[in-house]
Amino acid sequence: MAIFQLILCIIAAVVLSSFISRFIPKVSTPLVQIVLGAIASQLPFFPEVTLSPELFMVLFIAPLLYLEAHEIDKSALLRTLKISLSLAIGLAIATMIAVGAALHALWPTISLAAALALGAALGPTDAVAVSSLGREASLTQRQLGVLKGESLFNDASGIVGFQFAIAAAVTGRFEVGEAANELVTSFVGGALFGLMIGLVANWLFETIRSFGWETTTTRILMELFLPFLLYLAAEDLGHVSGILAVVAAGLFMRFDRTGIGPNVARTNIVSTSVWGVLSFTLNGSVFILLGMLLPDAMGASWQDPTVDNAMLIGAIALVSLVVVAMRFVWVYAMLRLVRDEATRMRRPMSASRIRSAAVMTFGGPKGTITLSLMFTIPYFVASGEMFPMRDELIFIAAGVIIVTLLLANFMLPLIAPNRNGDASQEINEITIEVLRRTVEELTGRVTPDNRRALLMVIDSYTKRITRLKQRTGELDPQGYAQLQIDALGWEKDYVKQRLAASKQRVAQTANAGAADGAATERGLEIEACERLLDQIMNSLRHISVERNSGGALWQIRGRSRALQRRVMTLARRAWSKLRRTTPLVSDDEIFAHMRIVQLGAIEHVIDRLYEEMGRSAYNTEHCSALLLDYRRAEAALRARPNMGVSAKAIEQAETAKRESYAIELGIIQDMVEAGDITRAQARTLRRNVYVMSVDADSSL
């Protein structure tokens, strides 16, 4: 029961961290999760945590590295493979030696072998932390490719080096030749084993799919079990790196990209969603666990009266300096030696290339793998005595982890800050990419039942892509977006005025005893206006929150008013039915009246745009472009057949359109988490989605 309670608490902390990160975007999510974990570990109802390194590697690191390897850009990885392997192997060994020598010189009580073990544990960068980079810093795709490639391969070198250094510390002897042979065997054996299993798994999964035996359930289960089984099998072979086996298999797995048809596409979509949830949960859990373990890891040494706390702080500072300096020197040397792909000549180290070296230096934070390795240090040596300075070594490792994470969080934005403004061409190209991915996912959801509705939505997205391509580089996106938002406000004002006029007519005719038909018609008008107004206000509230997180109170009030209007509408319907004054209206009739009101709002905005073209408040080109969009929407509405008859089909299309906006928002969030776009760009893209949800440009 305690384990189940611990799992629930960790998941709750992960969910909470995702909300907190939205309000403090300058602080990376991993840091927020570490702080939450540290706080949680002090709460009385939180169970005690004992980290089993073997369980941690198979439960967290194996699936995360498999997913990272499977989704990484293979062509980008090949282009940066030499640098990535140099950092993963060469730098890891150099860091091990440099940290070991420096720490032993500073604190001779720590044996050289134990200091080398700490250096080996500090070799691996944290793949989870690397994947979260690029949120507030503007990292190039090449820089991210190098960092991600390094994080895929450097775990094995760090683990093997750590194991041999600890063996030397325990037994008192160290064989360099044996260690080198073991390192090569671990690397080559793990890679070959993972490649072999990957090829077999590809053949097996594709064969199952070709025979039509694959179902969504079996596919998801096979995918989820593969990294766990592969890691355990590789470790059971002995002298083979399970981590490298998982990475190699992930790089060569391709069965999810084979096959055609809606069933395959739907299965791939479900698989992506499941892996997305699992990845987010495991990523967050890793740092929550790290935060929960840090207080105990550091507390034992800090509270020990026989240990000089100043020496501990000095050791953390020295080791952090050595790790960062070694990394910068190594990256600088690699950039200086690497040849240009086009000219095959070595390029001089310009200011931009030095900045790139600094970015990749601070972009290699240490994390939970380092701490989990340190916890495997035995309590006793071969002679039966206590392992010397065990708690102090764990304390230093934990301190270096915190320092490197803080440097990654606060130094990267200073060295490579996000652009303050998004260029027109860039934001339009990103928008086109989002729309393309949305179309791909919608295409995979087409079934005979929803085919007509989804094709209408896909057609609207295709037209949006075409118009964006025509506008690429021609319009200022911020000015045009502001005009769209203002036009949305004009629609809101029109609907409000129409709603007020309808309510006034109802009040005037109520005393005169209007006929049932007239009362029903006015009731439909009121409800149609209220529903359309709710849609517009909901989009405006989202836009306000995207611009300023302090608009939460206004959003709550707006939702309360919307709920109040809906309750009043239902109450009015029920009262009219009880009094038998009006027949019960159908949703089709309300939907048809909503379209009539929307057509009036479009005409109102078109008139307003013509007026604004003669003024100086807005750019004339912006007005012309938006006027064209509203004209298209007006023509589309007028060209429809009897709205009442086709209301059911149009309602199905509207449902599909709402789903498409949810898909679009999900793709934007995925791109943010992958570091493909910045938070500023994501805010702009989300704002566009909220505008389009009721804007004339999105009308079907």
Characterise this structure.
It is a multi-pass membrane protein. The chain crosses the membrane at residues 45-67, 87-107, 113-131, 183-205, 240-257, 269-290, 310-335, 356-381, 393-415. This protein is mostly helical and 700 residues long. It folds into 2 domains: 2-414, Na+/H+ antiporter like fold (Up-down Bundle), CATH 1.20.1530.20; 424-698, no CATH class. The chain is 77% helix and 0% strand. The longest helix is centred in the middle third of the chain and has 41 residues, at 262-302. The protein is elongated, with a radius of gyration of 30 Å.
Short description:
The protein is mainly alpha-helical and about 700 residues long. Helix content is about 75%, strand content about 0%.
* N-to-C SSE string, H for helix and E for strand: HHHHHHHHHHHHHHHHHHHHHHHHH
CATH class division of the largest domain: Mainly Alpha
The total strand number stands at 0
User: What is the alpha-carbon Rg in Å?
Assistant: 30 Å
Q: In percent, how much strand structure appears in the residues?
A: under 5%
- Helix content range: over 70%
The termini sit apart by 53 Å
**Globular, elongated, flat, extended or rod-shaped: what is the shape?**
elongated
